[in-house]
Design a protein that fits this description.
CATH superfamily of the largest domain: Zn peptidases
Oligomer: single chain
Number of domains: 2
Strand order of the largest sheet: 11-12-14-13-15-18-16-17
Number of helices: 9
Largest sheet: 8 strands, mixed
Structural class: alpha/beta
CATH architecture of the largest domain: 3-Layer(aba) Sandwich
Number of strands: 18
């Protein structure tokens, strides 16, 4: 059978129809996941280009700590598009006898109720509340641009910490930007030293503030940032604190795992917060312990603050030693500091939940409890030493950069109030 060629009219109609349909048939750009930058971590990545869904698990080497941290960038998004991020817990274990993670970590540690999202890797906000479906946590993320960063919590990398330290020290005579040490992998560990005026060193209160002994606990670095923002503020109370004290500030202790996207907690042979022994393994612990010993030797180790994030269902606690190993004087001073911290933080806006009752821990918590930093400092410190660990809740709608910074600001104000109550130190 002979088929007649299409007429000119038919060709025009066909082209018109194709032109009408082409916008709806236009192929979307392929989604891509990038984990090549500092602090990034994700594994088992699967992308469905048709339904625009990304499946993943936390990355990281379990020998280097709990695999609960995740952080990556998504590219190839159409502006205004909503993607589904599907998170499943890691199945990683450590096979070395006696090591941590002999069974997979509970997925709840990796599954915040809301993902942290950023257009530029600097300013962070929360996604809508995720939905738990069996083994999966599903986050819906709408992007106004062609890419976004997604993370377990608001990221702070060692590069960010160095930038913060430089910004705080810029044009401020009272601030020295220093280096605590170099890590085992050769990375610089930023540190600030703050003191104002001409008060003799021997008369100054000694204050040590550190964060991120567990690399995945990124919120604690933002608490540290808020702390320093208040200390360097214009209030008379902040100025009085600077004039009366020598404050040392370390925003990331475990810089290697923070840089490589590993969890850090229960790393082999043990993590930074189980390393405060006579022979510390980690360079950061060695250097911090040496400086704290100098303060103790001078009789000036007054307040030691170790900043962490707790479990997924925990409120904020001040962790204190088992009272059986504290002198009555130290117990009273620690309780007073905790009361001032609770009063300040519980009134903050945005409000991050905080328990009025400090959580007492000791030998029943860890076999290496004496090698935990706040415990070591309390046991080896001066009679007046207050050494506490503040665990700031991470699984709350208020667990944002603003919320964390506010906790740090309130903690600094509580420190100022506490030291203002102490009798002035005089040179013997």
């Amino acid at each position: 059978m002979r088929v007649s060629p299409p007429s000119l009219t038919q060709i025009v109609v066909l082209l018109s129809l194709l032109g009408t349909l082409s916008p709806h048939c236009e192929a979307k750009e392929l989604l891509r996941v990038d984990t090549s930058f500092e602090g990034a971590s994700a594994a088992d990545i699967k992308i469905d280009q048709d339904i625009r869904t990304i499946e993943f698990t936390p990355g990281g080497d379990p020998v280097r700590g709990w695999p609960c941290w995740w952080y990556f960038r998504v590219d190839g998004i159409q502006p205004g598009e909503t993607l589904q991020l599907k998170l499943r817990g890691s199945n990683a274990t450590v096979q070395q006898p006696g090591a941590a993670l002999m069974k997979p970590l509970s997925p709840s540690w990796a599954m915040p109720g809301r993902a942290s999202i950023s257009a530029d890797g600097a300013a962070w906000s929360h996604s809508e509340k995720g939905t738990r479906e069996g083994d999966w946590m599903i986050y819906s993320v709408r992007s106004e641009g062609t890419s976004f960063y997604a993370a377990w919590g608001p990221a702070c990398t060692p590069q960010d910490a160095r930038r913060w330290a430089a910004e705080f020290a810029r044009n401020k005579q009272a601030v020295q930007s220093l280096e605590l040490c170099r890590s085992r992998e050769g990375r610089p560990v930023p540190m600030l030293r703050v003191q104002e005026g001409d008060k003799p060193q021997a008369e100054r209160f000694g204050v040590w503030v550190q964060a991120r002994q567990h690399a995945w606990e990124s919120g604690s670095s933002w608490v540290a940032r808020g702390f320093m923002e208040w200390v360097l503020g214009d209030s008379e109370k902040a100025s009085a604190l600077r004039r009366a004290s020598e404050i040392t500030w370390v925003p990331i202790m475990d810089v290697d795992n923070a840089a490589t996207g590993n969890g850090g907690k229960d790393a082999v042979p043990y993590d930074h917060n189980r390393d405060w022994s006579d022979l510390p393994h980690w360079n950061e612990t060695q250097a911090a312990q040496a400086r704290v010993k100098d303060l103790i030797q001078a009789g000036r180790m007054d307040v030691f603050l170790d900043l962490h994030n707790p479990g997924p269902d925990d409120p904020t606690f001040f962790f204190l030693l088992d009272p059986a190993v504290l002198s009555p004087e130290k117990g009273d001073r620690q309780r007073r500091f905790a009361d001032l911290g609770y009063r300040s933080i519980s009134q903050a806006k945005p409000m991050i939940p905080m328990s009025v009752n400090p959580k007492m821990i000791g030998a029943n918590y860890s076999k290496r409890w004496r090698e935990m930093s706040s415990h070591w400092v309390s046991l080896h410190g001066n009679p007046q030493t207050v050494a506490v660990c503040l665990e700031t809740i991470w699984n709350s709608p208020a667990s944002t950069t603003d919320g964390y910074r506010k906790v740090g600001q309130c903690l600094a104000e509580a420190l100022a109030d506490f030291l203002a109550e102490q009798p002035p130190r005089r040179i013997p």
